[in-house]
Amino acid sequence: MPMMNRRDFARGLGAAAIAAPFFSLLRRAPAQSSPPRAKYLLIFFTNGTDTAAWTPAGSTESRIAFSPMTEALAPLAANLTLVEHLSSFGTADNHGAPGGLSGIGYSGFNHISVDQFIADGLRAAGVTTTIPSLVLGGVSTEQQSTFWREGQRLSPLFSPQSAYETIFAGAGPGGQLPPEVIRRRRSALDLVKGELDQLAGALGAEERRKLELHTDSIRQLEERLSGSGSDPGACSPAGAPAGGGQPLLDSELHLDLAVTAFACDITRVAAVEFGNNQSTQVSIPEIGEAGDWHNSFLHGDNPRTRLVNLERWLCERFVATADKLKATPSPDGDGSLFDHTLMVWARDMGDAVIHNGDMRFVFSGGAGGYLRTSPEGRYIDGGNDAHQRALVTCCHAMGVTSYDGFGDPNAPRTPLEALIA
Amino acid sequence: MTTNAIPGRLRAIAGAALLLQISCVGQLNGPGNEGDDEGGGDDGGGLTPSDCTDLGPPMLRRLTSAQLRHSLEAIFQDPTVPEGAVLVDPVVNGFRVDATEAVIRDLDAQQLMTYAELVADWAVTQKLGQLVTCDTAQADCRRQFVADLGRRVQRQPLSDASIEAYAAMLDAETSFADGAEVVIAAMLQSPMFLYRREIGEPDPDQPGQNRLTPYELASNLSFMLTDRPPDDALLSAAADGRLGTVEDLEREAERLLGTPEAAETLGQFARGWLETDDLESRAKVDPTNQLTDDVRRAMLAETDALFVDLVRSGGGVKDLLTAPYTFVNQTLASYYGLPGVGGDQPQRIDIPPGTRPFGILGHGSVLTRHALADSSSPVQRGKLVRERFLCEDIPPPPPNVNPTLGDPMGAVTTRQRYEQHAVDPVCRGCHDRMDPVGFAFEHFDGFARPRDQEGGVPIDATGVLRGMPEGDIALDGVDSLTSYLADSTAVEECLVRYLSYYSYGLDGCNQDAIRGDVEESGSTLKSMVLAIIRAPQFSRRAAR
User: In angstroms, what CA-CA distances link B207 with A100, B51, B89, B202, B540?
Assistant: First the structure.
């Protein structure tokens, strides 16, 4: 799997700095009145699919004619838009490609996935939560996720138990920590920071970068400690989930954690990855005989019955999550979480059987009224427009409207108007 | 399919990958089809030859999750230290040792803090009596506790300032137990614990160069060979100035190589190199349920054992590929149909002629892992040979090509289905490098079981290994492939490259030097390990 290395990373920074004034000329003027906005973003992330089986043939902009692979999404129709035939322009035409969420291919620099870009944008706009963003799920035995930051792949929190502890235990707003504990933690972290500074002095810039990431991670932790003791509000995390170690089933548990994290307003951005790239083993009875998502379901079966079953299973997880969001009050008391959440089903690539970047997305959620809706669902043929526009739509929906630093500046960086109410 | 080769080439970019696709077509029979230089292209992404005189800058390597676990077990001398899901190890090239990708970021600090507190609580409850034996009412005793624990945690003596800082932290608490708990939690979050340091000190004899400190060398050696922190003997050698020379390092390496921990670590290398590490969790469609978890584990243990045996006994690549003996327990012997083996532990047996192929490529682990859920896979097996034994790159299929094989009329055997690749000109370019190599394994199904026929059709295990320096090598069965590879210097060079990556966490800059050293010292597997340790990159860094 090709990767960026440190030199690419440094070079990318340089290139971005030089090009920045030019890019800003291309930026669109901000809208006159602020559009309705989503407060929460939930990215449901999977491998590419068999596009022929996915396509809801005969659909229109006001009605989805569901394919067998997508029909389990039907209960969400009134809040559902399926978009397909968006082109990745070569950035996402193979398994685990970096462009699916970043709009940038292997040859680019400074990949940042849309969730991270939005989290930064929210922070810059003063929307601070104790965790800037969550990346959950994936497969621990595989390469890292398709989520990126500063040109480096991010590791999801694989274990639901560990994720639960990290999100909700101790330093979270739900935890009421004794002052003694906070004092001790701060004193340990002060000592650690001193040692990090000392070590950094012996290193060159590239290696110092590792310690900067570490220091930044501690800074985030300290912010969480500062927030400790605040009003937990309506948030009431259930007990820790008991993950069984089967990656897809664990990801299902992670969806619940993401919903609860929203309910507690611990984060505004969460991504849950189902499977990763090429080595996800699937053993779920309703899908069929156990097999390998890549080798068996995508490239082995003909017809791809197990892939259709797997995608239907994923649709059901998507719908179940929407139902949980609907059943959960928004932390600010204004309706349900669903009303304020933008749900997006994104993928690493387009057609995973024949390897191309013919991308498709599922948009759902109340999204604060941002999305245009139709009682029987909406279908949009993207006509080979840039898939990056779907990613930019997520930014726009979340109120992050300056796209500098995201995606490929040579591809359009405007939201897809057809999606917007 | 990914290109799971090593980073220098791996850090190839999309443009370079495209070139490679073309190269599959263009260089089929051409000379020098090594793949090594192709991926580097002009992206500047990998280590280019001009970099290769460099010693590399001072660096840090974050402990892997296994190393963290092993370190805690060593610090507290207790295997029951609480588990924790902290530190994810990026999988790069099939290994989890990458020096560049492993970092601490985002929520890691919090996870580490929570885990450190959990371990500290456990240690104070369970181990305090062992961690301190003096009178903790005395300040000297408390300082001694900090110094002793700190030396084990940081793998080197603490500076006086550091002892003072931790002692002050301890004394700020109302009881010794509380203080000890705070200190343990802090030490386990320390970068001096979480990173191995390869920084060194200026070498007055070699201006511009740092020589790693004896403690840094002790850590490097120990983590490389045992995946664990240095033991008392190694720390003593560092303290007493007995790690200063190449001979010192070799002496300690020889000692460590004899330990069970080294055997485990060498086995882990073999699993990463042969990409068998996930064999236990691979989905297999096995209606007869013969491929039990026990069989899978025994298969991995077989390969581990042969690799370790050959490192220790002075074997080389040739032996690895052609050893007429192997290591099986009762479960695996029975699976293989070999009589007369009892017990759970792998036992060395001579392979009865006509039963299993000789050498590592005939192992159940390799044949089962490099197969599909319900059949063999000539592609995967051929790719294994190209990438892991010859260090060539195989690019992913080009866009808009459906790699799913159909069921052509009259096709009965796996081979007949894969032969479609040779017909289709789009597929042929790359698959001609893989499939005809994989066909040589067709006497073994996707479960490593021998077969003479498939669906009533006799097995045809003929094939060809194209593009070798000697030309195309005709194959018929696994033995024909291994007998060619066994004498190939390319295989030896490739193994050195993987071993070097495993040891340094970086794609080697120094392989020419290491290869020269290996050749001079007898081309054994052990000589490869020792050459990596003797190389200047092991003990020196460019001064900042």
Answer: 48, 19, 36, 7, 12
Q: What is the ipTM of this complex?
A: 0.89
**Peptide bond just before B7 cis, omega within 30 deg:** no
B495: nearest Cα among B360, B326, B317, B257: B317
pLDDT band at B511 (very low <50, low <70, confident <90, very high): confident
Cβ contact B324:B263 at 8 Å: no
Query: Tokens in use for A264?
Result: 């507690």
Q: Which residues of A touch B192 (CB under 8 A)?
A: 195, 199
Tell me how far apart the alpha carbons of residues A244 and A159 are, in angstroms, rounded to a whole number.
9
The number of beta carbons lying within 10 Å of the beta carbon of residue B472 is 13
Cβ atoms of A344 and A400 within 8 Å: the answer is: no
Locate the chain A residue with the closest alpha carbon to B9: A2
Rounded CA-CA distance B246/B206 in Å is 16
Per-residue exposure over B302-337, b if at least 16 CB sit within 10 Å of its own CB, e if not: bbbbbbbbbbbeebbbbbbbbbeebbbbbbbbebbe
Are A144 and B91 a contacting pair at CB < 8 A?
yes
Over residues B230-241, the mean pLDDT reads: 97
- Is a pLDDT exceeding 50 seen at residue B45? no
Residues 6+ apart with CB under 8 A from A124: none
pLDDT 10s digits, B447-502:
999 999 999 999 999 999 999 999 999 999 999 999 999 999 999 999 999 999 99
Report CA B110 to chain centroid distance, whole Å. Answer: 29
- For residue B325 the two structure tokens come to 């003996």
On whether any CB of chain B is under 8 Å from the CB of A175, the answer is no
Query: Are A282 and B88 an interchain contact pair (Cβ–Cβ within 8 Å)?
Result: no
Let me know the angle formed at the C-alpha of A125 by A124 and A130, rounded to the nearest 5 degrees: 70
**Shortest CA gap A202–chain B (Å):** 7
B408 CB within 8 Å of a chain A CB? no
Please answer yes or no on whether B186 and A188 come within 8 Å at the CB atom. Answer: yes
SS3 category, A43: strand
Could you state, in order of their start, the residue ranges of all structural domains in chain B?
60-196, 204-260, 261-369
Q: Which two tokens stand for residue A62?
A: 């006001």
Confidence band, pLDDT 50/70/90 cuts, at residue A141: confident
Residue A84 phi, psi dihedral angles, 5° rounding:
-140, 180
DSSP B311-344: HHHT-BHHHHHH-SEEEE-HHHHHHHT--S--SS
For range B362-387, the mean pLDDT:
96
- pLDDT value of position A170: 54
The pLDDT-based confidence of B147 (bands split at 50, 70, 90) is very high
- Work out the mean pLDDT of chain A and round it to a whole number: 88
- H-helix or E-strand spanning residue A215: helix A205-227
